[in-house]
């Protein structure tokens, strides 16, 4: 497979992770517009938060695709976001300062700023993982045929998927039997 | 492909099982036939039936009551919250023990011990949960964002919920996905907002306060504040009968022996529902292979209890406390309003403080999340209430078995919706003022009572090998003392029920 095709597949696989970051940015930017902020301000706020979260989200998806982190497990996601989340908000703070004052600037007490966000990142990691899995389970099966990474991750869920099929079949059998034993 | 719905294989049973089957005698009702325990799913997946408990539990206690207490008495009061939520995590595990081992709800378990116990919960659920007051916070926040009067959006939401649940073929699957997505959004969103407006000092104080065990301010020992503290403890995590309903969600998700019980369907396809067995099932606890599977199920539910339930409840309440502290810092008027106890005015002032401090986005986002919490709680509450009442009616009201469980579910759902609309239009949403104290009392009393029921069911009805150990029994016993003790102390010392 060519390198371009490989990158294309990784990008396609990362769509659910990108969507979570985009959702955060869209909420921020969309609401800014909704409450009557200038369009430019709303776009800057949305992008300032959304783009770093999307990029870090995509980074996590690539690690998942390459098998560096297991699917749906909390601890690796928590470790990843303890770095990614504070840095994303750091970028957001710089961009917001830029939008308000005209020059970019770091927040006061940058280490305290980062430490606090690192603590909150645990929560974001749960939410990210949760939404990533929710969106991924609809997206990855769609691209399964042409995307080796989606195929690999879906295979990790094969045990559950097989159990689902067996359960459905068993329910069909159980219907008759339950009537008899009720 | 649905890869996260928790499912499991129902093992094939021998054809002659109904004739020669072994049974487990539990209490006074029909014995439970022995069946195979299905394999536990790996605990790697993120979603489980606990999503319902989180949706119900992350409510007004987390978003308002505890932030209020922190502003009044300081962050050290939060140790009581820590105890309340940790206790609820243990209760969740014990509720799951009975439901997964038998496929029966805890209501059925209560009836096996002593039927009037079950009837108490049946009546209490109707009295506590038929009032649509719980819609007001979410719909009020929606009004702040859109300008649509809250009664209108609440009535429309009620009808929509009814139509939606009636149209679905299998209600559990849909709700699990919907609530999962909404809670994911809530968690991501509150993390982002708290990260934007909060500070290290706020969160350090909030976290430190969780370990200030024994702190109880003198000012809280009066008839104004003590009932509020008791109410907040009861509202730390799932309150009232929500933990009991969790056993029904577990059963319907097919967890443990719940795999042998058919799922509840929407009214449109209720005719296709499978017939319910007249009692639950038990697995062979003398078989080492079965016990290994049981351990897998316990591991699975423990993962849910710690990460999902405890983790998310803690996160949301820490985030909202940080938000309240930040708002009070921006505008001292907020602290006064929050302390005054007018919920709507306090939430509005908090929103305004965020809008002034950061940008109007934050004020609107704050309301959006209060509305989201309200929506989650409403969806979960209507479903759970109807599920619980349908379960008890089906099994214990004479003649009810001629209707299917799905039809009874639809009956209770539409009953509570129509009553809710009438009350929203013509009556007091929280219930008549004269019985408000009684309802608050009943809600907390039910929590102490279910701790006692849990001790009885899990120690008397389950085979020895899967009964809880002494430590867990002591913790659940402490739960009964904690809820009932505070409730009666409040009643006798100050003459009022919880606030």
Automatic annotation (TrEMBL), chain A:
<feature type="transmembrane region" description="Helical">
    <location>
        <begin position="73"/>
        <end position="94"/>
    </location>
</feature>
<keyword id="KW-0812">Transmembrane</keyword>
<feature type="transmembrane region" description="Helical">
    <location>
        <begin position="12"/>
        <end position="35"/>
    </location>
</feature>
<protein>
    <submittedName>
        <fullName>Uncharacterized protein</fullName>
    </submittedName>
</protein>
<keyword id="KW-0472">Membrane</keyword>
<feature type="transmembrane region" description="Helical">
    <location>
        <begin position="114"/>
        <end position="132"/>
    </location>
</feature>
<feature type="transmembrane region" description="Helical">
    <location>
        <begin position="41"/>
        <end position="66"/>
    </location>
</feature>
<keyword id="KW-1133">Transmembrane helix</keyword>
From TrEMBL, chain B:
<keyword id="KW-1133">Transmembrane helix</keyword>
<feature type="transmembrane region" description="Helical">
    <location>
        <begin position="148"/>
        <end position="171"/>
    </location>
</feature>
<keyword id="KW-0472">Membrane</keyword>
<feature type="transmembrane region" description="Helical">
    <location>
        <begin position="220"/>
        <end position="241"/>
    </location>
</feature>
<feature type="transmembrane region" description="Helical">
    <location>
        <begin position="117"/>
        <end position="142"/>
    </location>
</feature>
<feature type="transmembrane region" description="Helical">
    <location>
        <begin position="408"/>
        <end position="427"/>
    </location>
</feature>
<protein>
    <recommendedName>
        <fullName>Mn2+/Fe2+ NRAMP family transporter</fullName>
    </recommendedName>
</protein>
<keyword id="KW-0812">Transmembrane</keyword>
<feature type="transmembrane region" description="Helical">
    <location>
        <begin position="361"/>
        <end position="382"/>
    </location>
</feature>
<feature type="transmembrane region" description="Helical">
    <location>
        <begin position="439"/>
        <end position="462"/>
    </location>
</feature>
<feature type="transmembrane region" description="Helical">
    <location>
        <begin position="77"/>
        <end position="96"/>
    </location>
</feature>
<feature type="transmembrane region" description="Helical">
    <location>
        <begin position="474"/>
        <end position="496"/>
    </location>
</feature>
<feature type="transmembrane region" description="Helical">
    <location>
        <begin position="301"/>
        <end position="327"/>
    </location>
</feature>
<feature type="transmembrane region" description="Helical">
    <location>
        <begin position="46"/>
        <end position="65"/>
    </location>
</feature>
<feature type="transmembrane region" description="Helical">
    <location>
        <begin position="178"/>
        <end position="200"/>
    </location>
</feature>
